[in-house]
User: Fold Response regulator transcription factor from Thermalbibacter longus.
Amino acid sequence: MTRPIGKTIRVVIVDDHPMLREGTRVCLERAPGIAVVGVTGIGREAIHLVAEHRPDVLLLDLRLPDISGVEVARQVRAAYADTAIVVLTGYGDAGYLRALRPLGIRGYLAKTATDAEIVDAVRRAAAGCTMVTSQSEGEILTEPLTPREREILRRLVAGQRNAEIAAALLISAKTVEYHVSNIFTKLGARSRAEAIRIAHEQGILLLEDAGRNQE
Amino acid sequence: MTRPIGKTIRVVIVDDHPMLREGTRVCLERAPGIAVVGVTGIGREAIHLVAEHRPDVLLLDLRLPDISGVEVARQVRAAYADTAIVVLTGYGDAGYLRALRPLGIRGYLAKTATDAEIVDAVRRAAAGCTMVTSQSEGEILTEPLTPREREILRRLVAGQRNAEIAAALLISAKTVEYHVSNIFTKLGARSRAEAIRIAHEQGILLLEDAGRNQE
DNA sequence: CCGTGACCCAGGGTTTTCCCCAGGACCCTA
DNA sequence: TAGGGTCCTGGGGAAAACCCTGGGTCACGG
Assistant:
């Protein structure tokens, strides 16, 4: 898993901001022993680039125009385990991290990172080091939500009432109350507003449900 | 107000992402007739840079570590009206635009913009053109919230109950109900959950209150 | 076969929110 | 001095949310 010293670290950069891509590219290419072999802002193209170049490190933004960076990480992790993944996190992405932990990400990097920090993170990732903050950003959700609960939580966050949710799902309002109550228990919330806040903080709604947002 | 043709366009770049700053800088310096005279990621330093260099164009990010980009824009607009301001907007910044319109911003630019778009935007801004999308990003909030209402909305979004808000602000619960009701009317919401959603969408809570987040 | 978990429904209770109504104090500007 | 805006306070009532209890079906695996 660890790379021999002296070999050039090959990096693929994935971010949907051209300017940030460019800045990161010149920054990394100025560093000795690091070469940027691919750059893109599109998720599917990122997977192709990894398949083609088999880079040592994948610098990956989570917000991409086509598919989620989480999805890219999952596929790369499954098919090309030799590539170390370093996630570039923006402002509101703290919730994503929870979902990424089981995927074996090699490091997290804030987008506000400086030249030195990025070069350092890339070098460490290539060397096999795992930089996980893990203990930060609050506690982990003990009990996971069921699909039905996520469905209802999503509508709750959207501002729907119990009665509206019941009508949309063709179930009774009492059943909605039941699920909402369970959601509160699992999230540790005491009101809808609190549940909404926690859902945002933990990023519960941002995950794998991207494919069925069609109403 | 318009600049004579042939003169070099002098630009100051303000963004808290070093990589994006660097990318934008090299991009602009590659373009003929454009020179970057200052670069920073800090709001107060941005104002100093403008005062010192009197640039033709200020490329301004809205999220800065110290003071809001909105505040920077306001001060620059007031003291150095010759400097055209082009705002760099990220993902969730749609709400900011509402607050910026009365300030006479010369242009809005998505952070996902390409080299050509940025160079073009800078040239147009320096030439006196105003590029306002204005009609996009949904409806504009007709009535702005009062400071008291924003304060209460912030707590509402944080998940506090009316009684808790009342206790925190040392006012009666009935008064909180009154403000909450007014907030609903102004936002077009029918419940707290809806108000929270709208507040997030419009970015109402992200504005100038950065300086008093201390509880 | 029986336990477990997810899902569904219901009654009955308290609490909170929501939506009208009303009035008074303060500051700023015209 | 008179208005207008903001902030504060209050009552009463309907609606929604919240919290507990109790049922039931279905699919899964020991």
About this structure: Residues 9-126 of chain B form a domain with the Rossmann fold fold (CATH 3.40.50.2300). Residues 173-187 of chain B form the longest helix (15 residues). Residues 161-163, 177, 180-181, 184, 190-192 of chain B lie near DNA strand C (CB under 10 Å from a C1'). Chain B touches chain A at residues 16-24, 26-27, 41, 63, 90-92, 111-115, 118, 156-161, 189, 191-198, 200 (CB under 8 Å).
